[in-house]
Amino acid sequence: MNRIVTLDEFIIHQQKDFAHATGELTGLLRDIGVASKIVNREVNKAGLVNILGVEGSENSHGEQVQKLDMYAHDKLIECLKNSGEVCGVASEEEEGFIKIKSVGKKEAKYVVLFDPLDGSSNIDVNVSVGTIFSIFRRKSNSKKEVNIKDFLQKGVEQVASGYVVYGTSTILVYTTGQGVNGFTLDPSIGEFCLSHRDIKIPARGNYYSVNQGYYLKFDVEMRRYIDHCSDMNLRLRYIGSMVSDIHRILFQGGIFLYPNTRKFPKGKLRLLYECNPLAMIVEEAGGKAISAQLERILEMEPSELHQRCTIVIGSPDMVDELKEFIERYKPVSNGVHK
Ligand code: AHG
Ligand code: MN
Ligand code: MN
Predict the structure, then answer these.
(1) Nearest CA to ligand 1 atom 15
(2) Atom 19 (ligand 1): residue with closest C-alpha?
(3) Which of ligand 1's atoms lies nearest the C-alpha of 238?
(4) Which among 172, 196, 220 is the end of a domain?
(5) Ligand 2 mean position to 182 CA, how many Å?
(6) CB 209, CB 236: distance < 8 Å
(7) Ligand 1 centroid from CA 269, angstroms
(8) Contact 298, 201 (CB under 8 A)
(9) Range list of H helices, 84-167
(10) pLDDT digits (tens, 9 = 90+) for 291-332
(11) 145 and 267 share one domain
(12) Which ligand sits nearest to residue 93's alpha carbon?
């Protein structure tokens, strides 16, 4: 039997590959691992206690907030505050960013942005949800307070990103730009153990993932591509939690789309909390991530914390193919196709 490698061992081992690594990012990643174990515990027992359901309040986007969203939000902030490596956090569940006071004399270098619970409409029905995180080095002077510019950085500046899926098993996948690795939580020892080393996304896959219920609300080029997927007998899979759909695509190949609709003309998903971190993972694994307007997600300039964007992400050949559909079928300004 191969020796088990825990997340902590792996992170520390990887740190040794960086000549100037100080261990701060290592500590931060470990703290995120701890936070996700706590969230996992609550997600798992959600069916047993009265923590399920809609909390009643609405978040800053007019969406119903569920209790576990806020629980995950609070736990992540608590763990990151205690870590000593983080000077600020921003969460999908809070309008503004949160400044974190330094612990002792230490000047914390990192800001973390996260979607505490992605796919929260699935909680009530026992379907996979997840946590998504994105880590940047602060831009501002470390002697001063963190400011909005520290958060509004392009995705290419991320130093690490990752996600946790609370599914049939709980798995944490992260990258620091040195490949993508996955760790499955072994509940018997309470440790994330290396289960998927150096993940590479297949060039193509048999799945496409889109809310096909919005078909008539999509632009013509998207509808043509979706018709093409159907003509090719691809299988439609759409969980309603992006992180779980991306997780499947990472291993089995495929494409995930959330284009602009009439309701969400700029797209629905958040650039900073969902699209950037997942784009970094997918690109690191050999995939691609662009907007429906053909910009690379990781090069998009954010102007606000809760910025939404359209996204096309997944297997490289499939994203390229969709790009061709967009170029071929997108109406030009006089309404005539190119
Ligand atoms: P969240 O639960 O964090 O609000 O995110 C839900 C997101 C994403 O995970 C999912 O793919 C998408 O919203 C589903 O939206 P539709 O119901 O509009 O398809
Ligand atoms: Mn989400
Ligand atoms: Mn969420």
Answers:
(1) 240
(2) 211
(3) 11
(4) 196
(5) 20
(6) yes
(7) 7
(8) no
(9) 148-151
(10) 999 999 999 999 999 999 999 999 999 999 999 999 999 988
(11) no
(12) 3
Tell me, yes or no, whether 159 and 211 share the same domain: no
pLDDT of amino acid 338: 47
- Do 137 and 217 sit in the same domain of this protein? no
Under the banding of pLDDT at 50, 70 and 90, the label for residue 90 is very high
Question: Does an H or E element contain 32, and which?
Answer: helix 24-45
Q: Which domain holds residue 279?
A: 207-329
Neighbours of ion ligand 2 (CB under 5 A): 115, 118
What tokens appear for 48 in the block?
A: 């047993």
Count the helix, strand and coil residues of the chain and give each as a percent rounded to the nearest 5: 35, 25, 40
My answer on whether 253 and 174 are in the same domain is no
Query: Position 169: which residue type?
Result: S
Rounded Cα distance, 254 and 257, in Å: 10
Are residues 7 and 172 in contact, defined by beta-carbon separation less than 8 angstroms?
A: yes
Which ligand ends up closest to the CA of 274?
Answer: 2
Distance 282 CA to ligand 2 centre (A): 17
Q: Are 109 and 84 in contact (CB under 8 A)?
A: no
Q: Which residue has the tokens 């609405």?
A: 58
